[in-house]
Amino acid sequence: MKDEIITYLNDPGQLEKLYRTSKAPFKRAFGTLYPELKGNALADFWHERLSYETDELNWGSSREVRFIIITALVAGMIAKLPAILNIDPEFFYSRNIGFIVFPALTAFFAWKNKLPASKLSILVGLTLVGALFINFLPNDKKSDTLILSCIHLAVFLWSILGFAFVGEVGNNDQKRLSYLRYNGDLVVITGLILIAGFIMTAITVGLFQLIDIDIKTFYFENVVAFGLPAAPIVGTYLTQTNPQLVGKVSPVIARLFSPLMLVMLVIYLVAIIYSDKDPYNNREFLLMFNGLLIGVMAIIFFSIAEMGKTVRSLPEIWVLFLLSIVTIVVNGIALSAILFRISTWGITPNRAAVLGSNVLILINLLLVAVQLFKVVSKKKSLPGVGKSIAIYLPIYALWAVIVTFLFPLLFGFS
């Protein structure tokens, strides 16, 4: 996006077309470029235009609204397939819940970015391969590889969505960081939409109960069934057409939770010493420990992604550096516990998957911590920190492919 802005800087028409095509990425890229372009008449004009904030909500063009409505309806129909085709709900949702929303979001960004037919066919092909593979796996409810495939399939579909968002296969660190920011913004706006939907549902059902009409079953089977998948789709559309909508909320959340998570983790590590539970002999505790690790890592990565939008003070960068160090300690404990369990009880699909995931996360966290240390010691600038995350995202996607598609074959569907 930056290169395109510079290319069209002397062509107002093309610059306007570029902005209308991808408003949110354009605004972020221009914001980082403007200090270098300051003094250029057209750049100054665009700075004033993009800095102007209106209280009005931009609903985009009628064509875009129609596309969103259609994709939301299709997502709702997919969610209703068990009722329509008399499919076992447990079988369907455990394997296909990711296909309710991710393909719709992928279609939106593929359409928005005007991806060529060659790239579009790759997206469709990968999605179909995932759908066919997961639904033709043996229906053994005790199979660990089936559960692992279902979980990592969501990461695989998330990676396909990222491909549609970025629009390119090559090195494009800024767009990958924008994808992480989009995920953070989507969580915020979807959460708000769901809260509003919950309140509306409670009021609607309650009002009809007052007049002795029970609409609960109908409402949940139809309105809620379509509303839940529509929430992230509508949320995506709102964040892309109104970048300012949650633009100030997400950085605040990142800044607020980073120091809180640092304090919580330190206290938690101390508390483990005095507790009678440890991840070496307690499987459930190890799973929760790894869940905590992934959650904290997500906050670190989201906070670093937000660095591209706002200027960070040195204390805030120190907080992220210390949080990454403490998270590395947590990861080290989890990794040692996994190795202990493998050496004691042998290798299993679950242990292999967790081992691989923890090794990848540890390497990524070390890269991030090194870059953050260089920033706090004033040996390097902030962009290097974001790059250490952006270049690593395809590796997570590759690991998701391995666990989803190869683990069932390697471990004999056990």
UniProtKB/TrEMBL annotation:
The chain crosses the membrane at residues 65-85, 92-111, 117-138, 145-166, 186-211, 218-240, 252-273, 285-305, 317-340, 352-373, 393-413. Keywords: Membrane, Transmembrane, Transmembrane helix. This is DUF4153 domain-containing protein.
